[in-house]
Structures are given as structure tokens and as C-alpha cells.
Specification:
The protein contains twelve helices and eight strands. With 279 residues, the chain is of the alpha/beta class. Strands 3-2-4-1-5-6-7-8 form an eight-stranded mixed β-sheet, with helices on both faces. The longest helix is centred in the middle third of the chain and has 17 residues. The protein is elongated.
Length: 279
């Protein structure tokens, strides 16, 4: 997986390799080209000039600091409930399938298809479920998504499953009616498990860079997102946008999507990420 991460970050690595022996002005250009943004570029440069260390070493330290945010604490009460939301086209359903495949290696997982809008959404997830040999609670187009989730959690309890993984319909953050549906799903989960979803994850297309911050902010305000997954990371040179995204939202990145295959997801580790950036 480490080699896949290196390959996925190759575009960003090409940029950051230019920091060796660079002056502050060069580093500023590199950070801006990587979509770190003016605010965090200025912050980093101020810290570098005060550090007294080699600029590249000091930059690694600052990036590691900015990327290390506390991750959600998951209790022992089973089933663990993982709810995944995101805008249309962010790679959400594919990400749910990747997570299901990853979790199923050590846990008993039940999938819930809460996307009751998109044609063939349930069928798409069923195909992934069969590949990973997982149980799934399917839905019909137009069905109440919260009812599907209720059935999935109830089934998980009856079968002593470890994790329920909930896929939701893609939606624009500006559609208040669709955001209300997400809030209803969360309320139903909270009735069954008072602590609510253990992981309430938002998928963000990494190619959008900082443009995704506002949409993510709305989701966070509406349904208390507690972690992020950056999808399609293998196709972007905007790797630096991970810094403003997680710091503006004060949310940790939990996983990176690093390819199209079912295995192409990496748990985010700030130390490994920074190490790969500078290789």
C-alpha cells in the first residue's frame, strides 16, 4: 500500500522535491502551486524563517503539524455505524465499496444502500457486495432512505455484526431538502444508538482542491461530520489542498482514495504522507 501511495502522490511529489536547497521564495511558489493556499503558505513561511533549521526539514515538521488532527474515538458498543455522505460525483459509492472490502478482512460487515434516488444505485452496491461476499440491505428507487438504514442496523444487531456501512445519495450542499434527508438518517441512527454514527464521513474529490471547503462546511454544520476521505487522490497535483481542507474544517482526513480498484484506499497517516511527499 505504501508503494501505491507513492504512485498516487507522484504529481505532488514532483513539486515538493523542488524544496531541496530552495530559498523561501521558491518554497512559497511550490506551496501555492500545490494549492496550499495563501493563508497557510504565509503561516508556513513565517514558521520556517523563525525555526533556524534547514528549510526542507523545517517544512516537513510544519506540514506534519498541520496534518495531525485528532481522529474520532470509536467506542466498544457494536455495531459500529459508519455513515458516508458527499456531493454527486465525489466517488462516494465506490469509496463505500472500498471501505466495505477493507473492513470485511477483520470484521463482519453489513452494507446499507441509502441512495434511493439514483438509477441502479442499489444494483451497483450489490455488485461490490457480491465481490467482497458481504450482506447488503438494498433499497428501491424512491424508498425512504432512513427506513433502509433502520433495517440494516436492526439486522446487524440480530446477526451480531461488527459494522454497518451506510451509503447515502449524492447531493449538492445547496439543496436544503436533500440535506434534511441526511439529518433524518442521522436521527434514525441516533434512536438506535444514542451516540449516533461512530464515523460520519464526508467524501471530497481531491481534484477540486480548496473549492470543496465551502460544500464541506455545510455538510459539517448540518450533520456533524467527524472525518474526511479525499477521493481520486491519484489524479491530482493539488495534494497541498489537504492542509487548508482539514484545518479550515478542523476535521481529520481518515482515508485517501488512490485508484479505481477495490483495494485502492489507504488509511491516512500524516507521517507517511509527508515522508512520501519528499521522496
Amino acid at each position: 500500500m505504501f508503494s501505491k501511495l507513492k504512485q498516487a502522490l507522484s504529481k505532488a511529489t514532483t513539486l515538493f522535491s523542488g524544496t531541496k536547497g530552495a530559498c523561501p521564495e521558491d518554497i512559497e511558489e511550490i506551496l501555492l502551486r500545490a494549492d496550499v493556499g495563501v493563508k497557510y503558505t504565509n503561516y508556513i513561511l513565517q514558521r520556517l524563517t523563525k525555526s533556524g533549521k534547514d528549510l526542507t526539514d523545517a517544512l516537513k515538521i510544519e506540514l506534519l503539524h498541520l496534518l495531525t488532527l485528532p481522529k474520532p474515538q470509536i467506542g466498544a458498543d457494536k455495531p459500529i455505524i459508519v455513515m458516508v455522505s458527499g456531493v454527486n460525483g465525489s466517488g462516494k459509492t465506490t469509496t463505500v465499496a472500498k471501505l466495505a472490502n477493507l473492513y470485511s478482512k477483520t470484521q463482519k460487515v453489513i452494507l446499507a444502500c441509502g441512495d434511493t434516488y439514483r438509477d441502479a444505485a442499489s444494483e451497483q452496491l450489490e455488485i461490490w457486495a457480491k465481490k467482497a461476499d458481504l450482506e447488503i440491505v438494498v433499497s428501491q428507487k424512491g424508498q425512504d432512505a432512513a427506513a433502509v438504514v433502520f433495517d440494516a442496523v436492526s439486522k446487524a444487531r440480530a446477526k451480531s455484526a461488527d459494522t454497518v456501512l451506510v451509503d447515502t445519495a449524492g447531493r449538492l450542499h445547496t439543496r436544503s431538502d436533500l440535506m434534511e434527508e441526511l439529518k433524518k438518517i442521522k436521527r434514525v441512527i441516533t434512536k438506535l444508538k444514542p451516540s449516533g454514527p461512530d464515523l460520519n464521513i464526508l467524501t471530497i474529490d481531491a481534484n477540486l482542491g480548496q473549492n470543496s471547503i465551502q460544500q464541506a462546511r455545510v455538510f459539517t454544520q448540518e450533520i456533524d461530520i467527524n472525518g474526511l476521505i479525499l477521493t481520486k487522490f491519484d489524479g491530482t497535483a493539488k495534494g497541498g489542498a489537504i492542509i487548508p481542507i482539514c484545518n479550515e474544517l478542523q476535521l481529520p482526513v481518515l482515508y485517501l482514495g488512490i485508484g479505481e480498484g477495490i483495494e485502492d484506499i489507504a488509511e491516512f497517516d500524516a507521517k507517511n504522507f509527508v515522508e512520501v511527499l519528499f521522496e
